[in-house]
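ugh ok fine here u go
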Amino acid sequence: MRAREPVFRADLTTNGSGVDDENRGLVYQPPVIRAPVPGLEWTGRIEGASAVIRIPVPDHFNGKLMVGGIPAVRNERALDQILSDIVLQRGYAYAACDKGTPGLTLRDPRRSMAEWVPAYRALVRRTGELLRRTRGRAPVRTYIAGVSNGGYVVRALLEQEPDLFDGGVEWEGLLMDPAGRHLMTTLPVLVEAYPHYRAAKDSTARRRAHDRLVEAGLATGSESSWDRYFSRYWVVSLWLYGRNLDPDWEPFSADFTPGWLDDPAPLLGDYRPSERQEQLRARMAPLANTGDIGRPLISIAGDYDCLLPFRDHAEAYELMVRRSRKADRHRLYRIPRGNHVDGLLRAEDTGQRPVLPFFEAALYRLEAWVEQGEAPPPSRALEQVSDLYDPDALLTPAGGP
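structure:
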């Protein structure tokens, strides 16, 4: 069958293509688009994954490639505003894929998150081939940046395939650590405890449930987000990933029912992660992070993240990198009151702040680190974007709600 050919677009940004619904919910204030970016766009399937590749016209192309690590189980356009619109305006080519497991694919235990790294490996190689054919050269630099599950992809690729990249940035990356805390040690506690917190009639019962949620990793101060996380993230994530990571637990095989948002007991049964360690370790071992990164990595994470708690996914990965003796290649920046995704801020008025400006700033600090040898600041909390980069140079508005 004849290979699909790229198509010329007068504007590769979302001003030209529109904003996909799977992107829209992630963004609070999108980056400014100052001018159209004409160029070639290729869409199709690569090793079972749906992909998009965008290449600016030669006069605008800087010779570099940015690869987007797609969050959750969203489609290949989910980072169009968060990443593609930013890097295209700076002259980069851009490529992303849906990791090969979009939507409810992972409800099938025969499928696996282990497919993600091979899907991205194939994407990078196919993009390099397309650049050589259309622009006469391979990329002079290749970076990768991703969010949530896409942050896991960034970490895993810099551990497993460092020769493909010059560095990476991850935002709220998922940590896969069978020996530590992970999705299946946290989500069951959150799903079980939150209804008790919500329904408690007296302060003692409410405090007891609150303490369990904080012990599970949630930040004190993030309480206003908990109901939204329960209804949008915790229950459905336990149902989706639980079926894949512990397929022998019978309740996880049931079809999703909205009734679980009132009473999740039928989904949980008497699930106790400590009693399922053998099964979980067997499924998670092929996915495990090591911290042994072969290229520079900047991590950005909000400490009000109620899906991937900062302690268990950002701080724990930083410790893993240190144990691998690669701390000189890593920075972790904690964003006080930063949430899992900025789209949540549209329903919040509690002083939470967007993380996207810090993410954009980290892209530029990574570039300077790799190309000019300008090491970014030491790992720490960042109160202002200016602590990392000049906010006037960003395309993303630095203000919050």
